[in-house]
Automatic annotation (TrEMBL):
This is ABC transporter permease subunit. The keyword Cell membrane applies. GO terms for biological process: transmembrane transport. It comes from the Bacteria. Belongs to the binding-protein-dependent transport system permease family. It is a multi-pass membrane protein. Its main location: membrane. Keywords: Cell membrane, Membrane, Transmembrane, Transmembrane helix, Transport. It is found in: Cell membrane. Residues 95-300 form the ABC transmembrane type-1 domain. PROSITE patterns: ABC_TM1 (PS50928). GO terms for cellular component: plasma membrane.
Length: 315
């Protein structure tokens, strides 16, 4: 089992390096020029050449990548090309805002999805099962921005219960913050909860058809004990995987949601950086999202290995 865990760790590090190559290469092919974006359309060719040289834009591509990767590994993310401020200071607070929004959504979606998944598995074929599956498919099929706009229409425009924009500021009270971020969090909950519920249902149904679970039913054990004691532990590995995947999505897939609700998170900040051609900000934001996604999926893989009885107790 230790060898498998080390293998997953090595694969995670390799994946993150490969993502760094793709992120750096992708930012190099963005249309437009950073120097032109900073100086404006009326800049002279001489001024543009001087600025490109000062920013290191004339250096070979491989040299720029090695310098950038070395700085990222040592915690030096460079300076913003637009403002000159350190990138780490610019993305720090916004990354925390994104993590807080993701945590708010995860606290609601994970337990609710697992409980609903267990219930629809126990009552499979019932009206409750069919209704929940239809609702889950609808939430998965609809884009996040469309769900967000529907929630704004219902809860902000028609009912007036919640604000349409998630305006937050430093020192904001917890109650005010919850009220301001409820709609974007609810949008993320609807998308991720549907996927987790369906996977929980599928994993449990696959286990509940096994002979040892049928034996537990024949012994007259109550449904909660059969499901929670016999079925759920053996279905835990795929459930943990899908939960970790959706938590990773809560962190990395918030770009559209933050844009819809004007939330001051890392996703919207990265979109603004792309519009300004601020490459250090775009690269740092994209790699931060990638690192979170790879880390959470690596944790899920290790947890799935640890939950496998055949790997914990080899013959």
């Amino acid at each position: 089992m230790s060898r498998l865990i080390l293998k997953r760790l090595g694969l995670g590090v390799f994946t993150l390096w490969l993502v760094s190559v793709l992120v750096f290469a992708g930012t190099q092919v963005l249309p437009g020029d950073v120097a032109s974006a900073i100086l404006g359309q009326n800049a002279t060719p001489e001024a543009l050449d001087v600025l490109r040289r000062d920013l290191g834009l004339n250096d070979p591509l491989v040299l720029r990548y090695v310098t950038w990767l070395k700085g990222f590994a040592t915690g030096d993310l460079g300076n913003s090309l637009a403002s000159g401020q350190p990138v780490s200071e610019l993305i720090g607070s916004r990354l925390m805002n994104t993590l807080m929004l993701a945590a708010y959504a995860a606290v609601i979606s994970v337990p609710l999805a697992v409980v609903l998944g267990i219930l629809v598995a126990v009552f499979r074929g019932s009206i409750f099962d069919r209704v929940m599956n239809v609702l889950a498919l609808a939430c998965v099929a609809l884009p996040e921005y469309f769900l967000g706009l529907l929630l704004v229409l219902w809860f902000s425009v028609q009912l007036g219960w919640l604000p349409a924009l998630a305006d937050t500021y430093p020192g904001m009270g917890l109650g005010e913050w919850i009220k301001a971020t409820t709609l974007p969090a609810l949008t993320l909950v609807l998308v991720t909860m549907a996927q987790m519920m369906r996977m929980t249902r599928t994993a449990l149904l696959g286990v509940m058809d096994q002979s040892y679970v049928e034996t537990a039913w024949l012994k007259g054990l109550r449904a909660p004990r059969v499901v929670l004691r016999h079925a759920l532990p053996n279905a835990a590995a795929p459930i943990v995987n899908v939960v970790a995947f959706n938590i990773a999505y809560l962190i990395t897939g918030v770009v559209l949601v933050e844009a819809v609700f004007n939330y001051n998170g890392l996703g919207r900040f990265m979109v603004d950086a792309v519009a300004k051609r601020d490459l250090p900000l775009v690269q740092a934001s994209a790699l931060a999202f990638a690192a979170a996604f790879v880390l959470l999926n690596m944790i899920a893989d290790i947890a799935a290995i640890a939950l496998n009885p055949r790997l914990r107790h080899p013959r």
